[in-house]
Amino acid sequence: MKVKIRNTFLILLGNFLLALAVGFFILPYNILSGGVAGIAVALHSFIQIPTDVMVNALVIGLFFVGWILLGKDFAIKTVVSSFVYPVFLTLISSFLTPPANLDPILASLYGGLIAGVGIGLVIRTGSSTGGMDIPPLVVHKYTNISIAKLILITDFLTVLLGLFAYNLETVLIGIISVFTTSYAIDKVLVVGGQESKSVQIISAEYDKISKEIHDKLNRGTTITLARGGYTNDEKNVVLAVVSQNQYPQLIDIINEIDPKAFIITTDTTDVHGEGFSFGYRV
Asked: Does residue 275 lie within any of the structural domains?
């Protein structure tokens, strides 16, 4: 029940932020962003329908397309967003006055960032914001092309559509919104993750190194057998994941035991398991 309440809150908050970005920045300043807002802005010069009305119609229409082509499970996960988002957008467009004389570049930047945060919050719950997420999902179902690639292609084509109605400067400003939205989504999806270091150690003293990691750092290790590509010799590799502040101590341990050890370090942004996601923090 707590998870359902949290997820419902995140879906509502995410859709409110997305509606705020669209109603306060993107539509008033005709920003050619990705998604249904970008399509509404691009088509507005050809179809004289208010952009907020066009956005709401596209969101609800695409929801039913997704229901038909993607099934009941998709519809259940998306129904809240598809009907709450238009309500938020209508309220924001009606009662909030956008800032006057704001630089379109700033409107594109902040509109993209706020929209990305909102979309990211919804995605974290396993749900979808609907809208222009649906065509890429439909194409993916029948082609198995990466969803991320399809979304990027869809957003890029949406921005290019503006070339027929606006000018190159407007398109370039719109691309700012597309990339800032993508950046914000990525950051929201990894927020709260334990930033750590994944370290692979190749050494003849692998047993000693592994034991010291257990005893001094209270971290587990995995030992795998590898074969040298040039020498064809078999070697043992120690894999350990440690927190950021433990990493210097790990390097000291390795250098003390085997100064010639070969070390490969990779940054990690999200680690789950005992010692990381079960409340143990160093």
From this structure: no
**Residue 116 predicted with pLDDT over 50:** yes
Domain containing 226 equals 196-268
pLDDT interval class at 280 (50, 70, 90): very low
One domain for residues 172 and 246 = no
- Which DSSP string corresponds to the chain? -HHHHHHHHHHHHHHHHHHHHIIIIITTTT---SHHHHHHHHHHTTS-S-HHHHHHHHHHHHHHHHHHHH-HHHHHHHHHHHHHHHHHHHHHHHH-PPPTT--HHHHHHHHHHHHHHHHHHHHHTT----GGGHHHHHHHHHH---HHHHHHHHHHHHHHHGGGTS-HHHHHHHHHHHHHHHHHHHHHHHTT---EEEEEEE-TTHHHHHHHIIIII---EEEEEEE-TTT--EEEEEEEEEEGGGHHHHHHHHHHH-TT-EEEEEEES---STTTTSS---
- 206 inside domain: yes
Per-residue pLDDT, 281? 29
Query: What is the model's pTM?
Result: 0.68
